[in-house]
Amino acid sequence: MQDSGRTPRTLDHVDQALVHALQIAPRASWARIGSVLGLDAVTVARRWHRLTESGAAWISCHPAPVLAASGQGCLAFVEVDCAPDRLHPVARALAAAPHVAALSHVSGDRSLHLNVMARDLAALSRWVTRGLAPLDGVLGVHTHLAGPVHTEGSRWRLRALDGGQVARLAAAAPRTRTDTPAFTLDGLDRRLVTALSVDGRATYRALAEQCGAGPDTVRRHVNRLFAADMLHARCEVARPLSEWPVTVSLWGQVPAAKLREVTHRVTGMREVRLCASVISRHNLHLVAWVRSLDDAQRFEVRLAERAPDLAVTDRAVALWSMKHSGHLLDEEGYRVGATPLALWDEEETEPTGPSRG
């Protein structure tokens, strides 16, 4: 748990503006951000340091959906049924797995919900059957493969800045270029993705020392990853500070002919953090942030009005979001650590924990 004496319970208007700015341009210089916010670079950096030290905000990076589309990985949503008295040991083992990007204790017919990245389908199968299923306390596993991801959390924003400020920051954000197609990641690219998953603002010099390459080489590789849309950076804020503290997961069915239209409608909703096609008994998975449990039901009403062709077939609420984009969270939603994301090294894909032996 964080030290409550130094953990902010609210964000003032400057902190909100800072978080919004970093959601738009997560690697922009403090001088650039300060100029947009009307503050000096030292003040902005000091503010950010206070937020990160308290676990109130952080920046991570994660492999983008285009990696799966280019055959360099796959994404699955995995539901795990646990014996109640073994839930926490199982969750700790899974949180330590470098390819488990997200982990939540949820309501409903499953105990844990995971977002899992793997090198390929075979690696996913090996991990589920040899690493996950044998953990003591695991009673059942249900794996749902993701298809196209239509929107995800790096696009979600607070709304603390005006249009002019947003435009100025957007010019400093990593740019996707249509003339930079997806490419095969080399060893340095993979090391950089893993390092940036822990600290998305790590300097090129720090990345160079960590990844064993020169700063100029690192800069070229990082810029190329962003330009090809193979790496997404996101600035997150502790959920109690976001005014959207409740996470709702919905599974639904859409007629295949209507899927494109429905996803377009759904991704435009303020609350939606994730919208992905699924190859399963459902064909659409949504994750939304809402203001309260009552608002969760109101959101579903608005969803039905906006996308009447979507039939919601299952729903769950996150009781505790334990891991989010590789970062470990306490029961209140504040960051307490991170597990570097890596989906390529098979020897690292099995969680360590008590097995049934």
Describe this structure in words.
This protein has 357 residues and is of the alpha+beta class. The protein contains twelve helices and twelve strands. Helix 2 packs across helix 3 and helix 9 crosses helix 10. The longest helix has 14 residues. It is globular. The relative contact order is 0.20.
Draw up the topology in text.
Blueprint (H helix, E strand, L loop, with lengths): L12 H12 L5 H8 L3 H13 L3 E7 L2 H4 L4 E9 L4 H9 L4 E7 L5 E7 L2 H12 L5 E14 L11 H8 L16 H12 L5 H8 L3 H13 L3 E7 L8 E8 L5 H9 L4 E8 L4 E7 L2 H14 L4 E14 L2 E3 L5 E4 L19
Antiparallel strand pairs: 1-6, 2-4, 2-5, 3-4, 3-10, 5-8, 7-9, 7-10, 8-9, 10-11, 11-12
Proportion of residues in extended strands: 25-35%
Lateral arrangement of strands in the main beta sheet: 2-4-3-10-7-9-8-5
**SS element count, helices:** 12
* Helix residue percentage: 25-40%
Spatial gap, N to C terminus: 32 Å
The radius of gyration computed from the alpha-carbon positions, rounded to a whole number of angstroms, is 20 Å
For the largest beta-sheet, the strand count, sense and barrel status come to: 8 strands, antiparallel, barrel
Annotation, overall tally of beta strands? 12
Shape: globular
Which regions have little confidence, pLDDT < 50, spanning 5+ residues?
1-5
| Average of pLDDT | 92
Q: What's the SSE pattern? A: HHHEHEHEEHEHHHHEEHEEHEEE
- The SS-based structural class is alpha+beta
